[in-house]
Design brief:
InterPro entries: MeTrfase_TrmA_AS, MeTrfase_TrmA_CS, NA-bd_OB-fold, SAM-dependent_MTases_sf, U5_MeTrfase_fam. The chain is α/β, with parallel strands linked by helices. The chain is 23% helix and 30% strand. It binds S-adenosylmethionine. The site of S-adenosylmethionine has 18 residues, from loops.
């Protein structure tokens, strides 16, 4: 058989580069270094620092040593900082984190959309530690050692960092960790545990994701835990929707504009309770809904913005892609006797087939996931509502979508950073676009 020459696969270069200046932070909070090998993004580095790093792959660098530290550098408060992939900006002073987040949005809007806000409000801020009301924990059962690991994912890895505290989670949640760990390790088949979500709203919820239904013995074990810890347990087994462990358990509720909204554990819930309330209030101030106006709300979830808007007397058409959230939104609107039409639809599909999309709307509010509103924004732009309030959790997709609005004749009147995820690089931004007269 003929031998064919095959060049050996090129290994990515892993050269160490020393004393390199960091020129800025990117939107993922990584230091940008323009090295002789090209631009590298280095997690943990700060603007103005000089660092040693190892070049990894085409674009990344691993921080090895800080030769000259920034005056904005602080000692990370969390003992898991080096291992956990969560709070990746806690080495930057809090005020500077907020300045950086606004700067990122300003720059991305200018670079990708040629959009400049007419004015910026100061960032909306609240507690920067112990703020998270939901915490998702990864689980792994080591069959050989008969040991359960319960923790958070390491940075860019599937590894789990076992934790007994998380400084950004509310204390009601972290206080559960030791007893939860020992209870879950006693399950008959702990390998069936996918992940665990802890939620604190009007009650504390432990949602267990399982690959199969729990046995009667496991249910009894969990029931005893729930009683001892005064929590509600929900089970999310295989393809079934999440169910309460006990039939008498009620749906949990969270607050929005003095209303209590029901939601199903597992469905979307804003992470920071205080800032979620403040954000809704600010969005309403800009939207300024009037009785009789017709408002289209996209990516509505279980009604965090919808019901406060409807309280003003405006007619709201709220669109959401997850059926359980549409059901909850519809039920709460009925209980409160509010004018809401809650519709299940995929906003990424062509809107010509949707009857709700054939009406005209005075104003639009949208709050998409990180992917942004790549199709929906073109549909909105065609319909030319007077005002668009865009709530974004990803500045890169906001900039992409803002370009469509700008091309369709909208101006960015105001913008504001919501410090929804302190200590992390994640950025939440509220924007107000107005159609030019
Ligand atoms: C950032 S959450 C906002 C939810 C709500 N506004 C709130 O404040 O709680 C985004 C929502 O968009 C929904 N979603 C994502 N992609 C969608 C799509 N293609 N069509 C409809 N809804 C979608 C998600 O299910 C989620 O509820």
């Amino acid at each position: 058989m003929a031998q064919i020459y095959r060049p050996s696969a090129k290994r990515p270069q892993q050269q160490v580069l020393r004393n390199q200046p960091v020129k800025a932070l990117n939107h993922q909070g990584q230091g940008i270094v323009a090295s002789a090998q090209g631009v590298r993004f280095v997690s943990g580095a700060l603007t103005g620092e000089r660092i040693d790093f190892r070049s990894e792959g085409k674009h990344q660098g691993k921080l090895l040593n800080i030769q000259q530290a920034s005056a904005d550098r602080v000692i990370p408060a969390c003992k898991y900082y080096d291992a956990c992939g969560g709070c990746d900006l806690q080495h930057l002073a809090l005020e500077k984190q907020r300045e950086h987040k606004q700067q990122v949005v300003v720059e991305l809007l200018a670079k990708f959309a040629d959009v400049t806000a007419q004015s910026w409000l100061p960032p909306l801020t609240a507690d920067a530690w112990r703020y998270r009301r939901r915490l998702r924990l990864a689980c792994h059962w080591d069959r050989k050692r008969q040991r359960l690991t319960l923790g958070l994912r390491a940075a860019q890895s599937k590894q789990i960092v076992a934790i007994d505290d998380c400084l950004v989670a509310q204390e009601q949640l972290t206080a559960l960790l030791p007893s939860l760990h020992s209870t879950l390790a006693k399950l008959q088949k702990p390998e069936q545990l996918g992940h665990v979500e802890l939620i604190h709203v009007d009650r504390t919820i432990v949602l267990l994701r399982l690959t199969a239904g729990a046995s009667a013995a496991d249910k009894a074990l969990l029931e005893a835990f729930a009683e001892r810890q005064h929590v509600d347990i929900w089970l999310h087994c295989a393809e079934q929707p999440p169910r309460p462990l006990l039939p008498q358990q009620q749906l949990p509720r969270y607050e929005s504009s003095q209303l209590m909204l029901e939601f199903q554990p597992g469905d979307f819930l804003q992470a920071h309770a205080v800032l979620s309330l403040a954000m809704v209030e600010q969005a309403l101030a800009w939207l300024d809904p009037q009785a009789g106006e017709s408002i289209l709300e996209l990516y509505a979830g279980s009604g965090n913005f919808t019901l406060p808007i409807a309280l003003t007397g405006a007619q709201v058409t709220a669109i959401e892609g997850v059926p359980s959230m549409v059901e909850r939104l519809h039920a709460t609107a009925q209980q409160q006797q509010l004018q809401v039409s809650a519709v299940h639809a995929d906003l990424e599909q062509d809107w010509r087939h949707y009857s709700w999309a054939q009406q005209s709307f005075d104003k639009v509010l949208l709050d998409p996931a990180r992917a942004g509103a790549i199709h929906a924004i073109t549909e909105i732009a065609q319909r030319q509502p007077r005002r668009v309030i865009y709530v974004s959790c990803a500045p890169d997709t906001l900039a992409r979508d803002a370009k469509h609005l700008q091309a369709a004749g909208y101006q960015l009147k105001q913008a504001q950073i919501i410090d929804m995820f302190p200590q992390t690089h994640h950025i939440e931004c509220l924007t107000w676009f107005e159609r030019e007269a």
